[in-house]
């Protein structure tokens, strides 16, 4: 079954952006890993990244129309975007929220809230890039 892995703002710079927090794997490498991990689980994975909130809303609307599963790292939008909140609310396939770091353990208080969690079947955070593999595993278990 089809899974969209959607990554939000600044995640296109993975590998170069604050590697002490987000690691050294690039977004292109992450995308290849997600496709390979998905294939092992029998999932047809497509990975996308955008810095533009409206583009992300469009992709979530597409996922709602398709009824497909979504693995979402909404990055900073996680903490304040009601447009992303509303887009997630209408999904019919499972939604898994992923974060590379553990936002709740970070010093900025704004990171301690998530507008995604109310709609997610599971939150995977603090596992680095491997969190995407765990999230795809959650999707696979749900069928
Ligand atoms: C993040 C955590 C967010 O707080 C942050 O804004 C990001 C990445 C993560 O994957 O750890 O951009 O979602």
UniProtKB/TrEMBL annotation:
Name the coiled-coil region(s): none
Catalytic activity entry:
3-dehydroquinate = 3-dehydroshikimate + H2O
EC primary class: lyase
Keywords attached to this Swiss-Prot or TrEMBL record, sorted alphabetically, are:
Amino-acid biosynthesis, Aromatic amino acid biosynthesis, Lyase
- InterPro entries named among the record's database cross-references: DHquinase_II (IPR001874), DHquinase_II_CS (IPR018509), DHquinase_II_sf (IPR036441)
Q: Does the keyword Lyase apply?
A: yes
Please name one Pfam family that this protein belongs to: DHquinase_II
**Binding positions (substrate):** 73, 79, 86, 100-101, 111
Record site feature (Transition state stabilizer), residues: 17
Which HAMAP family does the UniProt record give? Answer: AroQ
What is this protein's function per UniProt?
Catalyzes a trans-dehydration via an enolate intermediate.
Q: Which family does it belong to?
A: Belongs to the type-II 3-dehydroquinase family.
**What name appears for this protein in its UniProt entry?**
3-dehydroquinate dehydratase
UniProt source species: Nocardioides fonticola
Q: Which gene encodes it?
A: aroQ
């Amino acid at each position: 079954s089809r899974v969209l892995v959607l990554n939000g703002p600044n995640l296109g710079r993975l590998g170069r952006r604050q590697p002490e927090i987000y690691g050294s794997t690039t977004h292109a490498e992450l995308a290849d890993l997600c496709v390979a991990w998905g294939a092992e689980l029998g999932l047809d994975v497509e990975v996308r990244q955008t810095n533009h909130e409206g583009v992300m809303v469009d992709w979530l609307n597409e996922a709602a129309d398709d009824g497909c599963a979504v693995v979402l790292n909404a990055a900073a939008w996680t903490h304040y975007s009601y447009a992303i909140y509303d887009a997630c609310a209408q999904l019919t396939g499972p939604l898994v929220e992923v974060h590379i770091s553990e936002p709740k353990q970070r010093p900025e208080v704004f990171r301690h809230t998530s507008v995604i969690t109310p709609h997610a079947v599971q939150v995977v955070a603090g596992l680095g890039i491997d969190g995407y593999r765990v999230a795809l595993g959650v999707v696979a278990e749900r069928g």
